[in-house]
Amino acid sequence: MTRRIVTLFAAGALGLAGAAPAWAEGELNIYNWGNYTNPELIEKFEKAYDVDVTLDGYDSNETMLAKVKEGGTGYDIVVPGDYMIKIMIEQGLLAEIKPNEMENFEHMDPKWVDVWWDPGRNYSVPWQWGTTSFTVDTEVFKGDDIHTLALLFEPPEELQGRINMLNDMNDVINAGLRYLGYERCNGNVEELKEVTELLLNAKQHWRTMDYSTIEKLTSGDVDISQNWNGAAMRARAQRPTLQYAYPKEGFTGWMDNVAVLADAPNMENAKLFVNFIMAPENAALISNFARYANGIAGSEEFMDPEMLTAPEIVMPADAPAPDFVRPCPQETVDMYNKIWTRLKQ
Amino acid sequence: MAEAQSTLVDARRAAEVRERRARWLLLAPALLTIGIFGLFPLTITLIYSFLSPGTYGGVTWEFSTDAYVQFLFERDIFDGTLEFSSTYLQIYGRSIGLAFVATVGALIIGFPTAYFIASKPPEQRNVWLFLITLPFWTNLLIRTYAVLLIIRDEGIINLGLINAGLIDRPISILYTDTAVFIGLIYSYLPFMVLPLYASLEKLDFRLVEAAYDLYATRFQVLRRIIVPAAKPGIVAGSILVFIPGLGAYITPTLLGGGKELMIGNLIALQFGSSRNWPFGSAAALILMAVVMVALLIYVRNASREGGNHG
User: Fold this and answer.
1) If you average pLDDT over every residue of chain B, what do you get?
2) Are A59 and A87 in contact (CB under 8 A)?
3) Count of domains in chain A?
4) Domain boundaries, chain B
5) Span A98-119, pLDDT tens digits
6) Are residues A20 and A88 in the same domain?
7) What pLDDT is stored for residue B306 in this prediction?
8) Which of A2, A74, A163, A188 is most buried, most CB within 10 Å of its CB?
9) How far apart are CA A134 and CA A137, in angstroms?
């Protein structure tokens, strides 16, 4: 009931806002991760279809979900991570737009079609995919082997107090589980207890816990940071001594996917956009900006040459395979929450 | 005659009715605003705080007091027993402490500032007030980033001190409680200065002169003439700094480094990755209750002391 009233109010407010004149043929409202969308891509789409695009940003899957769930956001396009796609499909929040029947679907790299979060691709197409590990300044770190999570959890003296961790429950706890050699989505009480100890102990050496990794590294606030590979590449462009690690204990792989909200006000434009970004030259635009691989075959020839050889994208042969973590059961999430709050109290 | 009187009474009554109606009409925008933007969301918050969390955020319509129990007690993750937990109390304590210190700091800086402005000739005061409000022309986020740039390891302060040869390696200010403290004072200082100025402006400086004539020391003048006169300003200013400081979100997020939660961050977390809206609502209501109690105590004490002086 309350929710209906809220929706009514929101609809009223939106109605007022919607009265503003639209300049272009149509509109498209994109809700994507912050600092993740190439402005050139947007301009190109606007010109091609005479559509006025509005871009808004979020900093975590959960923030986006919380907003979208209440409905009436006015957004058409969202870019959730793999597990969040699955959740949103289950919740009926995404429109079944059948990208697999679209014209440009032929460009999809077959290895990204039958994924566990959207088998056969009935709801979403790849935006970018990457890995979550960490970046360290090899000039500051005196050891030779950077490929171990020990740098984050039992750092040598020169890195103590110079560490940024992602402000993300799953990324931090998963890294801890890997370091101790335990399974992800772990409900084992004894093992979680050990992880809690490990994290509490390591926290004294961490300077910050924040999502803005590029800025933290390039400003010299920290010398080592948990990081996504694309962000690592962008940071390295400004601080060449940074190196992206492929820890032997393992690291996370993920894919962000473009999907259309079930209540999208501009459904047709949204579908146009989904088809548009599957074209190799457009997918390359996405990658050239945010520096991640994109999952569209043939986009390589339109990408910046340095991306094809970048150590952040081309994994060394002896690196473990990226671990695509599935959503955990609620009891595990509850335990993670408690560990997380205890860590940050 | 009697008839004339009764028409007079009627006319007066009609005028009263009209006036009452006009008063309500004038009040209506304020009441509507409070109702729609104050009481209505607050009611939702209250209701949500007594429901159960939905699996992926939101609430399910099942009555539960878990959110409030969770605030003080924790079901041990490892053996399931309910035991007292100070986790959230610590977070509240830290926030209250920081907001309090920031209020005192703002008072110490703001008082002389306000006094200085009030003691200027009237035609100059507006210029000074204008300068005080100038930072407000810029968004809080941007001002907080500016503070961040100034105090960071490679910021102006550290570079200046290093270049002057006073220190060898940068002092770590950013991402500590000190940084949050600096940020809070900077953000809310005008809220302290303006009410203080409003009180001090009314101070009759002849009283100060009279006190000196009666051989009062400088400290006595301050304590017995100036401070009592500024009291309403001190109360209002402290409230205006303390309350937003307590719920501050941007400042602790950007300057505190995100390692430790403040109340604002704790609440935001519940609506995000913790997916526990009822607890977020309860935490917000508990914060409101704390503020209300603190205000009552503070205002009552302040007015009692004020009474003694009067």
Assistant:
1) 88
2) no
3) 2
4) 96-275
5) 999 999 999 999 999 999 999 9
6) yes
7) 52
8) A163
9) 10
Q: What residues make up the domain containing A246?
A: 131-252+324-344
Residue A80 domain-assigned (yes or no): yes
Is A315 within a domain? Answer: no
Q: Nearest by CB to B91, which of A91, A189, A345? A: A345
The verdict on a CB contact (< 8 Å) between B272 and A345 is: no
Q: At A239, which CATH number?
A: 3.40.190.10
In order of A36, A123, A145, A235, A294, the CA distances from A300 in angstroms are: 19, 25, 31, 22, 9
Q: Looking at the structure, do residues A248 and A292 belong to the same domain, yes or no?
A: no
DSSP A78: E
Cα dist from B123 to B120, B126, B192, B199, B201, whole Å: 8, 7, 22, 18, 13
Quickly state the pLDDT bin for B3 (edges 50, 70, 90).
low
Distance CA A117, CA A327 (A): 10
- Got the DSSP string for B105-170? HHHHHHHHHHHHHHTS-HHHHHHHHHHHHGGGGS-HHHHHHHHHHHHSTTSHHHHHHHHTTS-SS-
A-chain residues within 8 Å CB-CB of B180? none
Chain B residues bordering chain A (beta-carbon distance below 8 Å): 36, 44, 47, 55-58, 74, 77-78, 87-88, 90-91, 152-154, 172, 174-175, 257-261, 271-276
pTM exceeds 0.90 for this model: no
Which residues of chain A have a CB within 8 Å of the CB of B174?
Answer: 221
Give the torsion through C-alpha atoms of B295, B297, B299, B301, to 10 deg. -160
> A344 to chain B: nearest residue by CA?
B260
Q: How far is A121 from chain B (nearest CA, A)?
A: 23
Are A138 and A242 in contact, with CB atoms under 8 Å apart? yes
- The fourth-level CATH superfamily of domain B96-275 is MetI-like (1.10.3720.10)
Closest CA to A343 of A210, A203, A207: A203
Question: How do residues A278-321 score in pLDDT, each as one tens digit?
Answer: 999 999 999 999 999 999 999 999 999 999 999 999 999 999 99
Per-residue pLDDT at A47 exceeds 60: yes
Q: Can you read off the two tokens belonging to residue B43?
A: 């009611």
Same domain, A268 and A238: no
pLDDT number for residue B73? 85
Do both A228 and A293 map to the same domain? no
- Of the residues B77, B78, B94, the best mutation for testing chain A's interface (the one with the most A CB atoms within 10 Å of its CB) is B77
What gap in Å lies between CA A294 and CA B27, rounded to an integer? Answer: 58
Mind listing the pLDDT tens digit for each residue in B29-55? 999 999 999 999 999 999 999 999 887
- H/E segment holding residue B84: strand B82-84
Spatial distance between the Cα atoms of B238 and B107, rounded to a whole number of angstroms = 7
